[in-house]
Amino acid sequence: MPVVQVADPGDERLSDYFGLTDVALRSRHEPAKGLYIAESTSVIHRAVEAGHRPRSFLMAQRWLDDMSDLLADVGAFEPDGVPVYVAPADLLRHITGFHLHRGALAAMHRPPAREVADVVSGARRVVVLEDIVDHTNVGAIFRSVAALGADAVLVTPRCADPLYRRSVRVSMGTVLQVPWTRLAAWPGDLDLLREAGFEVAALALTDDAVPLDEYARSAPERVALVLGTEGDGLSPVALAEADVRVRIPMRGGVDSLNVAAASAVALWALR
Predict the structure, then answer these.
(1) Nearest to 3 by CA among 62, 69, 82
(2) Edge-to-edge strands of the sheet including 199-203?
(3) If you placed Cys at 103, which of 63, 136, 207, 226 could pair as Cys (CB 3.0 to 4.6 Å)?
(4) At 200, phi and psi to the nearest 5?
């Protein structure tokens, strides 16, 4: 397949890339078609290195040389290869709905969802995200997980999609390397973690919560750290199901941190 120069912003071959700023549309569209969007040359490289298969590429002409080795590796230049669409910057903005700062996009086939037991096998530190709805926070948490040595992430049925474009970008592509999966039942699937030997620790502002530094000094070998949604924090049912509640000590009249910042603090203490 030769490189395709795009002149029509309504070209149906580019439908995977239309209106990427519409969060509601993408959250419905991506899981249904088994796709996600990788944005930037570095994230696309991470996706391919992780074994994910590209469906197509979309980029400005100036990025074609930088991507040529990767495109050759995935067979894009062979007959019936992965299509490579190239368009001027203003046309890319019209197609996607935003200014493409980072060079290129790729529509990637989603890998099959993994079983919880497979994801947590051999793990010592697992992060569970309950109903976190901001894609930026999800991506930032994955970046902390990768940087601070946690082993896996589990997300609840109503949590934002870790493979949404903004999550992938904010995570610096680490969402493509950290093992993760979506829980089928919440909070019932916490029993799967306990059966695997994890203590379920809820990060929460409750009167009976143990200070994080105190908990870290005697933390068990396997800990599943549960983080709650922005604003309200963990649900009452999640708190009730936890084995222990843990809080980050605060000063200066501040009662809590942003959930992504809190994840970094807690993971550093439990490293």
Answers:
(1) 82
(2) 180-182, 152-155, 125-129, 223-227, 199-203, 244-247, 210-211
(3) 63
(4) -90, 110
Are 70 and 45 a contacting pair, CB within 8 Å? yes
> How deeply is 93 buried, as exposed, middle or buried, from its count of CB atoms within 10 A (0-12, 13-18, 19+)?
middle
Rg (CA), the chain: 20
The pLDDT profile of the chain, 271 residues, written as one tens digit per residue, is 578 999 888 888 988 888 776 555 455 555 666 888 898 888 999 999 999 999 999 998 888 888 999 999 998 888 889 999 999 888 888 888 776 656 789 999 988 889 999 999 999 999 999 999 999 999 999 999 999 999 999 999 999 999 988 899 899 999 999 999 999 999 999 999 999 999 999 999 999 999 999 999 999 999 999 999 988 899 999 999 999 999 999 888 887 899 999 999 999 999 9
CB 175 within 8 A of CB 150: no
Token representation of residue 207: 């009167």
DSSP string, 84-129: EEE--HHHHHHHHSS--TTSEEEEEEPPPPPPHHHHHTT-SEEEEE
Name the token pair of 267: 């993971």
Please, are residues 82 and 55 in contact by the beta-carbon 8 Å criterion? yes
At which residue do the structure tokens 């086939």 appear? 109
Round to the nearest angstrom and report the end-to-end CA distance of the chain.
48
Cα–Cα distance for residue pair 53/109, rounded to 1 Å: 5
